[in-house]
Amino acid sequence: MRRLTEMRPGGKAGLFTSDLSVNEFLLVREAGFRPLGLVLGSSIYHVGFQWRQWTKNQELDRLSQAMYHARELAMSRMETEADVLGADGIVAVRLEIEFKEFGTDLAEFIAVGTAVKAEEPGEWRTNAGKPFTSDLSGQDFWTLVQAGYAPLGMVMGTCVYHIAHQRFRQVVGNFGKNVEIPQYTEALYDARELAMSRMQAEAEQLEAEGIVGVQLLSLPHQWGGQTTEFFAIGTAVKPLRADHHIAKPQLVLPLTD
């Protein structure tokens, strides 16, 4: 808290930190935002065990809840740091998971990004009064603002799913053949649909017009080949008001003979 307080505009430190590249930094400034500092949130979480049926496709809801809750803890702590800096939002957010050697069921969930503040006042915060979050790069963020849209928040959906094992007769019967495995197709389709629908529900709560930069990932983690996490993530956006003007820093070029 002391470090963040000193980094506030007018604070003792008088400098910012950022994981933006030089090009991203310049484009974020060109979009009318000033970087305030690197913000992060962390949660070391014990991911429990859930019984599953060997030959049944099924969501492991207890594990889905664990993965979602751990990410939410990390995200909310990152947003708290941005609030301390007086930020309007956080750009280039990364969500990472690292399983620790001191416990196979222990994972650290990390959220990190660059807190920014708009040069001109505007309705940049969410309808809950929190800083916006976005996993868009600095270049994509600039393009979004230039197109007349504002990020509302990162939205995500997760589903930990157990894919049924094939019975021995199925394995033998399919040997050497080109054939679809319906139970696998249905399992993967169902798991992805659950993750996507949950991400869309978060965007609806933010009253977003849409979601950009969607990624749909399959993350096996430590559960073996038949159980995996399907994770959908993107940035919910809204249109800017027609009368809202973006402040653009003026580039001054030296005179030459």
UniProtKB/TrEMBL annotation:
It comes from Amycolatopsis mediterranei (strain S699). Belongs to the UPF0145 family. Pfam families: YbjQ_1. Coiled coil: none annotated. It comes from the Bacteria. This is Heavy metal-binding domain-containing protein. Transmembrane segments: none annotated.
